[in-house]
Structures are given as C-alpha cells and as structure tokens.
Amino acid sequence: MLVLAAVSDLQYQRLRGAVAPRFLVVRAGTWDDALQTIRERPVEIALVDPTLGGAASGQEIERLHVLFPSLRLILYTSMTPPLAPVLLALGQCGIRQVVLRGVDDHPERLGDLVAAEAMHAASHRLLDQLTAALAPLPRGLRWVLEDALRSSGAVQTIQQVAARARVDRGTCARWFARAGLPSPRHILAAARVLYAHRLLQDPGFTIEDVAKRLGYAQAKTLQQHARTYLGLTAGEMRLSLTSDEATDRIVQSFLTPARPVAAANAS
Predict the structure, then answer these.
(1) Domains along the sequence of the chain with CATH
(2) Are 49 and 15 in contact (CB under 8 A)?
(3) What is d(CA 119, CA 210) in angstroms, rounded to the nearest whole number?
(4) Strand 72-77 relative to strand 98-100: parallel, antiparallel, unpaired?
(5) pLDDT tens digits, 231-263
C-alpha cells in the first residue's frame, strides 16, 4: 500500500523508517505535488502537515478531504500556538488523527497508526467484501490474489498468479475450476472494476485518473471492463450504483460458483 507524506524531509524520513517494509512511502514537497501524486498513483493513506506551505493553514488539507473523501488523512505536525485553531477547524470537518512531531511520533506509534488506517482503506474494504467469494480457494492462492488486488494492474493473468503462488499454470487452473470460479484474469479484472467504482465516488478523480492509477494503458479498456462486469459505462456506474450494489452485482454474476444441476433439482 502506498502512503503519501506531504511533510518536511525530516518527518518523511522518520515515517519511512517507521512503516517500512510494510508500506511504501512517497514524499510530496508541495500541495500541488500532493494533488498530482494522489491523482496518478495508488495512494490510500496520506500524512499531511498544515505547515507544509510555510504558515499554518488547513485550506489545502480541507481541499484534499473534499476532493478525495476515500483517502485516509493523518495530520503530522509540530504543535505551535498558530496551529491550534487550524487543528480545531480540521477536526470539525472530520480529520481527527493527529501525530505531533517529537511528542508521539515514536516509530512504533507511527507504524501502528498507519497500519490501523490501512484497515479502513478502499482496497482493504474491497477485499473484505470479496472474502466469501474467494474462500473456496487454497489459502496460499487467496494470499496471492489479495496481494494482487492491493496492487491493481501488477498481476492480470493466470501465468502471473501461478508464478506468485509457486505452482504450475495447470495446477492453478484446476484450483479455480474446482472452486467453481472463473479464471484469475476475470477475477482480477472484475475486482479492478469494483476498485475503479470506489475511486470514482471521489469528485477529485476523472475516469482517466482512475484508469491510470489502476494500471490501464488506456481509459477505454476500463470502459470495456465496466460494461463487461457491471453492464454500465464508467460514467454510468459512478452515478447509478453504490459500492455495495456494485459488489453484489459482480459477486452474484461472476464470483458465485454455479450449483450442480442435480443439487439444484433436489432442492
């Protein structure tokens, strides 16, 4: 999972040391850099300093919160008198996680806080909703799929899944067939559509932004996948489906094993 650090270099170094190797941290030196990074890379957690621009201000952080409500925001700063009203205002708009430099940014505390926020990130919530559908697969294979879903676009074929699971392609295919599930290619493509749907609920993302974040070479491929797995264009699914509705539609249509004919007749 990628963590954005819109903080000073010293805070960035401390954060990176606290969360490695569980999380990859990328630094933004300005608010414009932070905005561009969020739009182009799969950032799900951001540690931000209200004093990044010089004077203490919550304006840019409130802007990020409005544009990207799915982004988990943590304030990481040094306490000064001018900062107090800024923290109060940010708390009133829903940003309440605060880490004070030199006070409670011990590496263990920082690592635990980022790990806790990761449990609420969009990719983790998506995995929670797909757990039941993937349950028939062997544990090792589920781990491979879960890791692939966290890094959307890095793994897309059965050959890549088999290689990560350290089995041959035929064994991997038999596991999916035995579980009554489609191929990994379909599972990963469907999951990417669900992830795209979640991101498109944020007003700060365009369809092109989301396609780039999820590893699509072209936005039209995302449009094709949206039609295949949800029966809607990316623009339509943004407006007409909740996250739960989109997940239910894909799980029922693609990830629910078919019941054997004999069992269905017996019931």
Answers:
(1) 2-118 (3.40.50.2300), 122-258 (1.10.10.60)
(2) no
(3) 21
(4) parallel
(5) 899 889 888 888 888 888 887 877 776 554 343
